[in-house]
């Protein structure tokens, strides 16, 4: 878990369990990368079950894995920001909730203010002998300075190579050679009850090793709010982890990395029994894409999955049969891959390329390992008939009518497109006028926008109709700006929206 992170509440971004082994390279060996190279690095045999039948000893596993886990310290330096009355984004929206509280602290007029720098701490795992390190996106997000400390206490400045908010993964690089790296294993082979060790740098302590077992797989806990299409299929463990362990390693008894520590379940922000790790197979795909292409190449199926816990009326509408173990399609993107292959609302997906899927987390992980253009065999039930479709994944996330309607409803106002005559009068290309702003909606709670405001851009995307407003909202993350004008004024106003996807 990255420490000093302001959004830590009931479930805190944290770290996970690991046991492991490391391949040590000397100066005469070639550079090895455990993500990009198919052949495995040498693995230290850990001998967990002594032939004598004595107690399990994790000493060899810990000694082998510890050198590959690093301490990451970050600094976020804030720039001085001009304070423009009624036209600024509230940079403290997540802390104070609305503009009125912000103005109470910082005033209402001109001038400027400067936020203090923020320091934080996390962990990482070396995956190549020439200095590539995997960690969590939330560990390095927004960092202006990154320092990596190896187990031998050597310090290096690091640069970010690439990040993926949807999986909460990041790749950073230090200028070093002949580093001890960790072999990457197959997270699909992880079994419930398997022993693991958690290795990281919690609570600003030196490297720390804890032990536990795998207690669940494919957990979706709803913690990742960083990306537009978050993927959560965590490996769950009961090994003790705490803030600062984010990005540490989860390793199996063969000395292979099977997960990257990401989160803890806690009412206090500290360890309370469970921790969660990003599966290594998903990590290999994401980090491999960043290394090869500079960004993640993600394929999309183009469906909206029915949530768990639906009432009987909702189940009846979708035709959900509780006797079928699968993932039910609530909606398809008309332009998406699934619709093109003939899948539709009410179908239950049971297999992806022959692998059984019974939860949305399992389906999301399987698809997230693929790229646009990949063909995937989808086995599904339609009524009592089993069918198979060959689906060619697309590179766009897609949009769904129900999601767009929910997004615009959450703003808490009514919207009407300007007529051509009104746009000409205001000397603008077009826009959407806002009326009936309620106190409970996002606009009313977070801004001092007045009825009559005309939205011309959402997050930099021009809008001239309500449909375009819905579409632009679907492309936004947690935080963005609403830009526009008031009738009778030539000034352009900006209103910051925070926590839109939460």
Highlighted features:
502 residues; alpha+beta; Thrombin, subunit H; Pdz3 Domain; 3 domains; six-stranded antiparallel barrel; six-stranded antiparallel beta barrel; 12 helices
Structure report:
This protein is α+β, with helices and mostly antiparallel strands and 502 residues long. It has 3 domains: 11-74 and 121-293, Thrombin, subunit H (Beta Barrel), CATH 2.40.10.120; 303-392, PDZ domain (Pdz3 Domain, Roll), CATH 2.30.42.10; 401-497, PDZ domain (Pdz3 Domain, Roll). The chain contains 12 helices and 29 strands. The strands form 6 sheets. It has a 6-stranded antiparallel beta barrel with strand order 12-13-14-17-16-15. The protein has a 6-stranded antiparallel beta barrel with strand order 3-6-7-10-9-8. Strands 18, 19, 20, 21, 22 and 23 form a 6-stranded antiparallel sheet that branches. Helix 9 crosses helix 12. It starts with 10 loop residues before the first strand and ends in a 5-residue tail after the last strand. Residues 4-28, 41-52 and 80-110 have low confidence and may be disordered.
């Amino acid at each position: 878990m990255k420490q000093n992170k302001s959004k830590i509440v009931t479930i805190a971004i944290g770290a996970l369990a690991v046991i492991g082994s490391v391949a040590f390279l000397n100066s005469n060996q070639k550079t090895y990368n455990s993500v990009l190279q198919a052949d495995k690095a040498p693995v230290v045999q850990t001998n967990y079950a002594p032939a004598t039948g004595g107690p399990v000893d994790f000493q060899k596993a810990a000694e082998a894995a510890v050198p590959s886990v690093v301490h990451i310290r970050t600094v976020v330096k804030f720039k001085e920001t001009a304070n423009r009355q009624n036209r600024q984004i509230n940079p403290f929206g997540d802390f104070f909730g609305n503009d009125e509280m912000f103005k109470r602290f910082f005033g209402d007029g001109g001038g400027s203010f400067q936020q203090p720098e923020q320091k934080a701490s996390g962990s990482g795992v070396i995956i190549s002998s020439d200095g590539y390190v995997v960690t969590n996106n939330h560990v390095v997000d927004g960092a202006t300075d990154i320092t990596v400390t190896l187990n031998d206490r050597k310090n290096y400045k690091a640069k970010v190579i690439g990040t993926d908010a949807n999986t909460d993964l990041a790749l950073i690089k230090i200028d070093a050679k002949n580093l001890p790296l960790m072999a990457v294993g197959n997270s699909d082979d992880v079994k419930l009850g398997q022993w693991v060790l958690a290795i990281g740098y919690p609570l600003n302590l030196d490297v720390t090793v804890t032990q536990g077992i795998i207690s669940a797989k494919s957990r979706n806990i709803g913690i990742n709010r960083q990306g537009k299409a978050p993927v959560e299929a965590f490996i769950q463990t009961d090994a003790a982890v705490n803030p600062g362990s984010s990005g540490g390693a989860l390793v199996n008894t063969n000395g292979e990395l099977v997960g990257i520590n990401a989160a803890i379940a806690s009412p206090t922000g500290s360890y309370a029994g469970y921790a969660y790790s990003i599966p290594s197979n998903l990590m290999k795909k994401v980090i491999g894409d960043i290394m090869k292409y500079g960004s993640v190449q993600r394929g999309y199926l183009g469906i909206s999955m029915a949530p768990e816990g639906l009432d009987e009326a909702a189940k009846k509408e979708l035709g959900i049969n509780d006797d079928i173990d699968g993932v039910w399609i609530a909606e398809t993107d008309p332009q998406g891959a699934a619709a093109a292959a003939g899948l539709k609302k009410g179908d239950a997906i049971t297999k992806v390329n022959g692998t059984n899927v019974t939860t949305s987390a399992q389906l999301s992980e399987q698809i997230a390992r693929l790229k646009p253009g990949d063909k995937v065999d989808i086995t599904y039930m339609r009524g009592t008939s089993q069918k198979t479709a060959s689906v060619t994944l697309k590179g766009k996330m897609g949009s769904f009518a129900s999601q767009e309607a929910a997004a615009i409803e959450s703003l808490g106002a009514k919207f009407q497109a300007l007529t051509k005559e009104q746009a000409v009068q205001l000397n603008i290309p077009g826009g959407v006028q806002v009326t009936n702003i309620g106190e409970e909606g996002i606009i009313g709670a977070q801004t001092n926008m007045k009825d009559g405001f005309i939205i011309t851009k959402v997050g930099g995307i021009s809008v001239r109709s309500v449909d375009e407003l819905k579409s632009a909202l679907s492309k936004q993350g947690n935080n963005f700006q609403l830009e526009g004008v008031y009738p009778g004024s030539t000034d352009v106003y900006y209103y910051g929206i925070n926590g839109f996807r939460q």
